[in-house]
Write a structure and sequence with these properties.
single chain, 2 helices, about 70 residues, about 70% helix, mainly alpha
Length: about 70
């Protein structure tokens, strides 16, 4: 049985430019939905953008800089 791989640890996400590209696509979608003023898709685009920031950039940074308890 294989263990599941978290999305940000997939080898495709190793290069920084790919992570930035995914974030830019999500943010572009968010800007598009702001102009369309559809609350459901605005929420979906905002959630996808927030998750991309967290999973692709902040999670490991916070883990590395957390003080040991």
């Amino acid at each position: 049985m294989t263990t599941p791989v978290e999305p940000s640890y997939h080898p495709w996400f190793r290069p920084l430019y790919r992570r930035v590209l995914v974030l830019l696509v999500c943010l572009g979608w968010l800007v598009f939905e702001i102009t369309q003023q559809d609350p459901f898709w605005l929420l979906m685009a905002g959630a996808a953008s927030g998750y991309a920031v967290w999973d692709l950039f902040l999670r490991d940074f916070i883990r590395m800089h957390r003080s040991p308890s």
